[in-house]
Write the structure tokens for this entry.
Amino acid sequence: MTLDDRLLDVRGATVRYAPGRAAVDGADLRLTCGRVTALLGPSGSGKSSLLRAIAGLEKLDGGEIRFENNVWSAPGVHLPPEQRRCGVVFQDYALFPHLTALDNTAFGLRGGSRAQRRAQAMQRLIAVELEERAHAYPHQLSGGEQQRVALARALAPGPDVVLMDEPFSGLDRRLRTDLRATTARALRQSAAATLLVTHDAEEALALADTIALMSEGRIIQTGAPDALYLRPASLTAARLLGEIEVFDATVSNSHAATPLGGAPAPGFADGAPVCVLVRPESIQVRRADGDGALATITERRAGVGQLRLVCQMSDGREVMARTLLSARHRQGDAVRLSLDPDAVHVISASAA
Amino acid sequence: MAVNPLMRQAYPVWPALIAAIACAAPLVAVAALAVSGEWTGYLTHLWSTRLPDYLLNTVQVTLISGGLALALGSGLAWLVARYEFTGRSVFEWLLALPLAVPAYAAAYGWFDLTQAGGPLGMLPTVRGATGAGLILGLTLYPYVYLLAREAFSGQSADAYEAARTLGARPREAFLRAAMPMARPAIAAGLALVVMETLADYGAVAHLGAPTLTVGLIRAWAGEGATADAARLALMLVAIAFVIFALERGQRARARQTSASGRRRPARRIQLPPVRGLAAAALCLSPVLLGMVVPLGRLAYRSLSAPVTRDLVSAAQNAVLLAVIAGVLAAILGLAAAYALRTGTRSGAVAARVAGLGYAVPGAVAAIGVLAILGLLQSWMDAAWATLFGGLFPVVLTGGIAALIFAYLSRFAAAAIGPADSALSRVTPALDGAARTLGASANETARRVHWPLITQGALLAALLVFVEVLKELPATMILRPFNFDTLAVIAHNYASDERLGEAALPAVLIAAVALPPMIWIARRIVRAEAVRAEATGAEAGR
């Protein structure tokens, strides 16, 4: 058996704050030690509640959470949070205001002398490049420094599970990129199963080995980042990971016809209503003398390394496409649009 | 907000329920006693004799003291919050110190100075409703000052600046933007002043302005009828609750107005030297008039007074009572604050009921405790009679325990505020952090909560300590036989026109109350500075 086989298993977890709609409504999730799982969903989807339930900060109203062979939460069972060996990085970091960075980091360490514990905590601070700020109090630290102390503190006791609740949300973009790298390195060194709760698809794609998509209290799809991006199981799942174009179509001969061309639809019966999902970068934009459906560029906006085009087709429908920034398209140009048949994904209309 | 299960488990509501019962029981007992028997007879009698006078005096004294405290408190708060001048950082806390002076001590001092033949005999003698109102206003204005200053240095300053950029002149901006924003805070301070004025006995009795509280004590002492006193007490409570309700109405508005925006320190305007000196003089005057002058006079008078053994034991008693009440009030205040934190309905109700206490004048609380004791006695007598025949052999007087009970029912409310704001530093996420790092609920309380709340708890305890030290009417009514406090012997000498001997205990009260009051005032001022610095640093990033 390898480390990878140690599992945190969440089955049918339900958290209800008040009678009525549940915040977490039968969520299934599996975290593997040594891997990072991102829990991605819009705000209000129940991500934080699920995280808190795993940490033992909320009781389950249904379902169960077990780690290896131990039941952590189930109806009538609630292992107190201090016995779960879960390190949590809270959204606002929750650093203890009366303790220095070093003492915050040493808070969860047990056993050994005080000097040993402090030395151990210092190692953790060095790992996040904060040894110089060890004796500063939280209010003297910048947001990024606070985040790193929170991470060092959560990792210090050597937890089996690390839970991070929107850990980069309060930081500016550049800092976020730096911290992501530091965080990824620190997490890789620990053998813990990590859950990263976020509403930022880019963050999930950048950090996670596995992504779980959450919507309205349920986990709607789990998988590798690229698989989820390219082959979402539903329209909701597709939208959580980025912009998407949707074409309604009917299958004939294992093909779904769209205004931009046919898409392979293997496994669907003839006449089945389907949705063809296309990411904007999979829509090929060619000059008007090429192949494809005729359209006019109505909006052109330069982004980071890419060009975002809104194209109006002859039937009035607007389609979004992304090309390289270097592509020479101008507003008002007539272009032809077609699909990259390898990059489209067809789902049943009922899954939309 | 959702109920956090960690909180629900870790913090029981029952201590707060005890606090709530301690505050509510005397009130209920007063009400029950007041309407017992032939209760309209006494009031009808009183209405045709002294009640109109009591009511008139109460209204006059309250209007004058409230008006003076409002003008002094909010005016000085604006000066200190918005302008920079010589000595401003000292005046910031110095202006709160008259709270350490019991109103009756100031009354003795001023009366002694201005009576015919006194050193300031050429001035009109400080007496009657006007005199009492002025004395109470001068010693109680810091309630308005402290709360208004905080409001003026925060959001209200932003509103003022916004109004100026929209073309309002300073005066207009103050009246139309700054004042409305600070109004809930000022109203809260003013309500405290009015409550204290209604509760005062020593000053109004000495200066000959018999208010309802004086009438209540006369009913209890002169005619010895607790039930009659309870009838007046109920009337007093009714007035206090109207004030309370008005203030709560303002507070509901405060929630709406404080929702947005980051607090930052307002930049103060530097006053030119001459106007700066004028501002300093303005700040100095209430401190002189409310504290230095009357205490100076009393100190001078007490030079010739003998130190008796009575005085020493009275001082010990006073400090002992104040310490016990302070510690217990801090505990009850924390209990109420924790109960609020559980987010449960019973917790919120308990904390709110305990918070009503500050509307209960000390004399009323004392009569309530007497009523409870009377009730217990009659139950005991009845039980004893059926079991053994005859009366219960012990007469329940309650002693010090009853006194502490009355203090708590009045002052536990004062401890809830500081305890709650101390506890607000302990966010639920901190609990979660500590627990997930392996600390049990008890360990979390010890390693996270305790270090964060000790200062707030100390503040609460000291506030109550100072209040109990100054307290007179409840102590007079409930003190055990031969048990005197400084306040009681000062009052007894003063009412015998022996001001020379009343001076020393009165000065001693202020002397004991001043050091904690200085600590309290400086801490309140500094806490804000730290908070402003923290948010400022965050904003600067």
The first helix of chain A runs from residue 47 to 55. Chain A is about 20% helix and 35% strand. Helices of chain A lie at 47-55, 101-106, 114-127, 143-155, 173-189, 201-207, 225-230, 235-240.
